[in-house]
Specification:
Structural class: mainly alpha
Membrane topology: Multi-pass membrane protein
Radius of gyration: 19 Å
Strand content: under 5%
Helix content: 55-70%
Number of strands: 2
CATH topology: Fumarate Reductase Cytochrome B subunit
Keywords: Cell membrane, Membrane, Transmembrane, Transmembrane helix
Subcellular location: Cell membrane
Largest sheet: 2 strands, antiparallel
GO molecular function: electron transfer activity; heme binding
Strand order of the largest sheet: 1-2
Oligomer: single chain
CATH architecture: Up-down Bundle
Order of helices and strands: EHHHHHHHEH
Shape: globular
Protein name: Cytochrome b561 bacterial/Ni-hydrogenase domain-containing protein
């Protein structure tokens, strides 16, 4: 067995930044409203991080690309069944089920921050696009925005349980891999993650530009 670099530093940076921002958003969103300014600005930050991750899924390192972990539904079903009986093929990157979870989480998070841009706290803070839609649509977005965190928490809990399952059942050190980027694999593996500079510049540049634009809009 050798350690193979799978998750390069942009992926690890985006992952843990997403974790921190999501945690902060849950705390401020479910609080008494005194930290609503932090909630808005962390929501802006999360939108930028998700944007960078989506872009990096197309122009990033090999194991970060969506095409690397988008599998045929049959293979996803087969792998799901294998996991239920404590088996399953080893994948260097995301396995079929893990790939689905990544996409679902990114989609749910995008809906969460996206709806937040069109609503207000009905007191002091207004999303930058609040006045662009009707009151009825804004109310619908607000209802979705306030109910979706519970679904996101359930998805995150499922994600954590899956990681723990792999840690305990298959001895696959996924948490450590997301810290240092390396996973153990047979010595015949020749592929290592390579960080494309242009992919990093475009992904992070677009995220910074998006964030700067949001911050420039009065709320």
């Amino acid at each position: 067995m050798q350690k193979v670099l799978v998750w390069d530093w942009p992926i690890r940076l985006l992952h843990w930044t997403m974790v921190l921002l999501f945690s902060g958003l849950i705390i401020t969103g479910k609080g008494d409203g005194d930290n609503m300014d932090w909630h808005f600005y962390m929501g802006y930050g999360l939108s930028a991080v998700v944007l960078a991750r989506v872009l990096y899924g197309f122009i990033g390192s090999d194991f970060a690309k969506f095409k690397q972990f988008l599998y045929h539904p049959v293979e996803i079903l087969q792998h799901s069944k294998a996991l239920l009986i404590g088996q399953g093929k080893a994948y260097l990157g995301h396995n079929p089920v893990g790939g689905v979870m990544v996409l679902v989480l990114l989609l749910a998070l995008s809906v969460q921050w996206g709806t937040g841009l069109f609503i207000s706290d009905e007191i002091f803070w207004f999303g930058p696009f609040y006045g662009m839609i009707s009151d009825d649509l804004s109310s619908s977005f607000a209802s979705l925005h306030h109910s979706l965190p519970n679904i996101l928490l359930a998805l995150v809990a499922l994600h954590i349980l899956a990681v723990l399952y792999h840690e305990l059942r298959f001895k696959e050190r996924l948490v450590a891999a997301m810290l240092h980027g390396k996973k153990k694999h047979p010595t015949d593996v020749e592929k290592h993650a390579s960080t494309p500079r242009i992919g990093v510049l475009l992904s992070l540049g677009a995220a910074v530009g998006w964030l700067a634009w949001l911050w420039s809009i009065p709320v």
